[in-house]
Design goal:
By secondary structure, the chain is mostly helical. It has a single domain, classed as Tetracycline Repressor, domain 2. It is built from ten helices and no strands. Helix 1 crosses helix 7 and helix 5 packs parallel to helix 8. The longest helix has 27 residues.
Length: about 200
């Protein structure tokens, strides 16, 4: 797993520049020199914080994932029914797709790069484990309150819910017009609702 980036201003400036450059040009077309220039630092200082472009991409995606994952706990907490929860889950995914397309694109670049980079593969493995655990914890709390009664184990349900959303987002990258199709979002909500089951 990558070391977490330092929290000082230089490290954050580098991450911000990496997000901008990678988001605009893509991983393959972006150079370390361009990121360093955008961040206003030397290549040497950039490498002091981040060893490679692979690590920069992974850390940018980790930061975005962590930020979006923070929305899960309050979303689960305010849901009062399986319908609320399904609507909240789909709404969260839609908000990310519509408000942060750069994060979506870079996440998919990570998936591609994971086949070539053990560093990125390990980072993605860790990120998804944490994300599944967070969703599973929220589902456990919802089941404890009696608002859902899924027919399958919660860890499997968490993986399936993430698979549904990831697969749909991947299609949006190929066919962006699908993201504007309300029937697709309604269908995703229906699928999530079905998996969650009826509460007691």
């Amino acid at each position: 797993m990558c070391a977490r980036p330092r929290s000082d201003e230089k490290a954050q400036a580098i991450l911000k520049a990496a997000r901008a450059c990678l988001g605009e040009r893509g991983y393959a077309a972006t150079t370390i020199a361009e990121i360093a220039t955008q961040a206003g630092v030397s290549r040497g200082l950039l490498h002091y914080y981040f060893k490679s472009k692979e690590e920069l991409l992974a850390q940018v995606v980790r930061a975005g994932t962590d930020a979006h994952a923070e929305l899960l706990e309050p979303m689960f907490a305010r849901s009062e029914s399986a319908d609320d929860l399904a609507e909240g889950l789909v709404g969260a995914v839609r908000a990310i797709v519509e408000s942060d397309p750069t994060f979506v694109n870079l996440s998919m670049e990570c998936w591609t790069l994971a086949h070539e980079s053990s560093l990125v593969a390990r980072e993605l493995e860790d990120l998804y484990r944490q994300l599944r655990d967070a969703v599973c914890e929220g589902l456990q709390e919802a089941r404890g309150r009696g608002i859902i009664q899924p027919a399958i184990p919660l860890d499997a349900l968490a993986a399936l819910l993430l698979a549904l959303t990831d697969g749909l987002v991947m299609q949006f990258l190929i066919h962006p017009e699908l993201a504007a199709d309300e029937t697709i979002w309604a269908g995703l909500e229906m699928a999530a609702r079905s998996l969650l089951g009826d509460g007691a």
